[in-house]
Amino acid sequence: MDLDALTPAQRRVVDELMDWPNRSVRPRFEPDLALQLRDALEEALGPLADQLNRGELYVSKKKLGQVLACEAHHVAAEEAGFGGWSPRAARGTVAHKAIELSMHMPAAATPLALVDAAVERLVADADDDEWGPGRYLAAADAVERAELRAEVNDIVVKFEECFPRLDPEWRPRTESVARVDLCDDRIVLSGKVDLALGRATGTEARVLVVDLKTGAPWPSHLDDLRFYALVHTMRTGVPPFRVASYYLDSCGFRAEHVTVELLLTTAVGRVVEGVRRMVELHLKQREPTLTPGPACGWCPRREACDGPALWAAERAARGLDPFD
Ligand code: SF4
């Protein structure tokens, strides 16, 4: 890599986010760590799983975050289901595809050319990926496509400004899905990572997991990263050496080194608590609790719930900015 050719923002990604100067020194973990994590999860979740059929509970980063933030929000979102594709819903998938294609196209390919190629590829894959945005993209009208094109172009340009050109030697992958089946396949943990770089060598952790974000940092982003780290470790047997949220609007990041304690205590404990709530609500064993908070802003129940007003009052009482 020609370090002198990098912009200061790209250099920061290489030196600080990827920790390139220390790439020969990465942590090693016990070979049975994934087994320890599975044992801890299955011991705690076993009695809950006994109430479920195979494949009945699907736990994603989003669902876990929802149920731990406000149970009523989680229940409402489950009832509403997927609201369908829109430019906003599709932009992440298209952007990640464009970033993936950037590795295989000439360096001179413009972000818009990458975006158009990504849309073309997703449309072509529509029959093989019925849950993807391909069919929506094929049927979208000119205005929707133009809106999507502009939004994704902005993301890809920012990515190019912030990140060095991805080297195939780093084994970059985007939208990489990891899945863990627990308790006789009754509970499934699933995570889709925006960008992962590197691969483990033996029990040496050499993978960097990056969640690409537009907008401002939220405390819950760290919880999401820990969930990714847990699922990644259980799938491959070796943790990522680091997980990070990268904020494209500010060229900044928040990163955390992955440790055994982080996985066995913090990440496992959060999954156990979230799954407990999800099972109780899914089986209608009790009513969901209401917890006003930032999620009121995008909750399906916000028109009929007192939560937004309560949250606004609490923000005012705490002297918080309306956008905090
Ligand atoms: S509006 Fe707020 S308090 Fe009400 S259900 Fe949604 S997130 Fe919970």
Question: What is this entry, summarized?
Answer:
This protein is an alpha/beta fold and 324 residues long. Helices cover 48% and strands 13% of the residues. The chain has three domains: 9-82 and 169-282, no CATH class; 87-166, no CATH class; 292-324, no CATH class.
Question: What descriptive keywords fit this protein?
Answer:
11 helices; alpha/beta; 3 domains; six-stranded mixed β-sheet; 6 strands; binds iron/sulfur cluster; globular; 324 residues
Task: Note the overall shape.
Answer: globular
- Mean pLDDT comes to 93
Q: Portion of residues in helices?
A: 40-55%
Q: Poorly predicted ranges (pLDDT <50, ≥5 residues)? A: none
> How many DSSP helices?
11
> Biggest sheet, open or closed, and with what strands and sense?
6 strands, mixed
Strand content: 5-15%
**C-alpha-based Rg, rounded:** 21 Å
CA(first)-CA(last) distance: 40 Å
Order of helices and strands: HHEHHHHHHEEEHEEHH
The tally of beta strands, per DSSP, is: 6
Q: From the helix content, strand content and strand pairing, which structural class follows?
A: alpha/beta
Bound molecules: iron/sulfur cluster
How many domains would you count in the coordinates?
A: 3
Q: What does this 3D model show about the protein?
A:
This protein is an alpha/beta fold. The chain folds into three domains: 9-82 and 169-282, no CATH class; 87-166, no CATH class; 292-324, no CATH class. Helix content is 48%, strand content 13%. The chain contains eleven helices and six strands. Strands 1, 2, 3, 4, 5 and 6 form a six-stranded mixed sheet that branches. A hairpin with a 4-residue loop joins β5 and β6. The radius of gyration is 21 Å and the shape is globular. The chain binds iron/sulfur cluster. The site of iron/sulfur cluster has 14 residues, from α4 and α11. Iron/sulfur cluster binds at residues 70, 72-73, 290-292, 295-296, 299, 301-302, 305, 307-308.
